[in-house]
Amino acid sequence: LPRGLLCGWLQPYRHQRRHAAAEKDGATTTRAEARGVMEEPLLQASGEQEYGSTASFFGEESEGDGGTGKAKSGEPYVLVDLEAREWGRGVARDKQVLGYAASMAIFLNAIVGPGFLSLPRLYKDSGIIVPTGLLVAGFAIAVFSTVVRSETVALMPGNAHYSRVVEFCDPPLKFVGRATFYWCHVLFYVAAMATAIASIVLVTQTLDILIAHVFGQSYALALNGANRFDVVAWNLHQNCKSDAVCKPFLTGHQMRATCFISLGYLVAFAVLYPVSTNRLSEGMALQYASVAAMCVAVPVLMGKDVLRIVTDGTKTLAVFEGGYHALDASGVVLFNLMYGIFVSTWLTEKRPDVGVKRVVAQSSAFSCVLMIAYGVLGALSARAVAVNGLSAYTEKGVAPAVLAAAVLFGFFVIASGIPVACVMARHNLVSSPVIIVTDSVASALTVVLPWASAWLFVLPKVYSALLNYTGLFVVSWLALWMPFFVLLARHDPLPDPPSSLGYLAWFLKQLTDPPDFDIDTVIFPLPAALLPYSRRIYALMLLLISVWIVACLASYIFWFIFFIIDNPIF
To answer: For residue 301, which phi and psi values (nearest 5 degrees)?
Structure first.
């Protein structure tokens, strides 16, 4: 652990020294050349390199799936043309180390994140039918889109066996164009940072509750008013009642801060910031600990819900609730389906014998059943449910075993998603074929910024808005809609020059074209019998997801209009 912490703190500086040395040798392309001289640049080893090579970033010799290739030792990569046969740098075989168990751990930790703890509140507000239906349908679409996303990565030149570093936004650049590539980067960054910030908020609350239980109270630097900061103490026994929802620095008549930096926040930063700069495979100890904590904590928490239902009786839970709560349900469910955007880095580091469809389908099915059970039991067992579902298990007077399970879940399960989001967001920026930011700027944007801003989202309404709007307007397009669009564009290029009528004609063509019996595929996202109809199926998925998103957007607009009418400003 000390070695991991130390390496984590020094990781950004090692990257800066490495790139500085490369620039000193004069072998790398400047930012001006990347943007002005070369068209659509791409990272590839300088010097001759044969097709299928998997040379590592600084020219180590290795053997790839499609043949062998060599790059001179110590020679950095330069920018080459988009039409080059290989994209990205190669991955040495000793870097593809994630087996089936490690892959399942990564996916379960990516799925069971901050949105998981909001499900009891979701079921309480929206009834049983809407959240359950959205979860089942959403996971089915998410599994399909994640497999399709993996297919587009495999169809990149020279990457049939995932032997090259292809980040999330590289296929849109190759198969669609630069505009989609840049939008993809923006949405990916927002989604990853929303995950990191939401996780930081929950971990902070968990640690503050633990500190208050152990030492009697926790402390925070609170913002009161526009420009006044005060050091405040939050005492669990004075501010919370037994069997009632208790939130650090929010529950209690004297607590009126708009945002705060607490002691739990600082502890979380000291422990988790270092591991947020490592490779995905280097943080597997935390991933395994997270899965172990989930297996221990979730049965205890759900058992407590069952015991409360048996002893206190079932609380009222509607079968169906429409209106604004249904929109919240869509946003939170979509937030829980974000895991598909993180698949690219896993594909690069997984072992060749690990099946994509098996890992994605099994982890998603298990998570879907777990989410429905947890949401229903949590809603039935409590009179009032907070956005952070752990509040029901950390209240004053709770049994020590339940408190320990809640802390275990809040720290290990939720905290494990923070380094994953930071690492993958950073990889997507620095491994891009088009130079977007420098290494140091990428570290600041993906590691420093979420930790510097998460304290602004501690209020329940702000936190809920973060989940809902990110799910509805970012994750839906990025994780569900874009994989089908990019794969269709790969099989049938978009109209050039682009136009609205041209795009409409192109989309209708996907729906009406005769079956294609010669379509390219690598991992068979569809059964073999349906492959000739795959373009029609992908187009129908695009239409279905678009209708879902537009309907939610229109509902929000109508709700806002009616709200203004009922509550006039003047």
So the answer is: -65, -45
With beta carbons less than 8 A apart as the criterion, state whether 413 and 426 touch. no
For residue 68, the cross-strand partners are 63
Distance of CA 335 to the CA centre of its chain: 8
How many C-beta atoms lie closer than 10 Å to residue 221's C-beta? 17
Question: Count of residues for the chain?
Answer: 570
Asked whether the beta carbons of 112 and 293 are under 8 A apart, the reply is no
Beta bridge partners of 230: 222
Dist CA 319 CA 331 (whole Å): 19
Return the structure tokens found at 115: 């949105």
Angle between helices 178-215 and 263-272 (to 10 degrees): 120
- Residue 47 neighbours by CB under 8 Å, 6+ apart: 59, 71, 72, 75
User: For 197, phi and psi rounded to 5 degrees?
Assistant: -65, -45
Token output for 426: 């950073």
The Cα 290–Cα 108 span in angstroms is 9
8 A C-beta contact, residue 108 and residue 116: no
- Cβ neighbours of 413 (radius 10 Å): 27
Q: How many helices (H) and strands (E) does the chain have?
A: 22, 7
What phi and psi, each to the nearest 5 degrees, are found at residue 233? -115, 140
Nearest to 455 by CA among 317, 287, 234, 258: 258
Per-residue pLDDT tens for 454-484? Answer: 888 888 888 888 888 888 889 888 989 999 9
Claim: this prediction has a pTM higher than 0.85: no
pLDDT digits (tens, 9 = 90+) for 388-428: 777 777 776 778 888 888 888 887 888 877 887 888 788 77
Give the burial string for 509-539 (b: 16+ CB within 10 Å, else e): ebeeeeeeeeeeebbebbeeeebebbbbbbb
Distance CA 368, CA 373 (A): 9
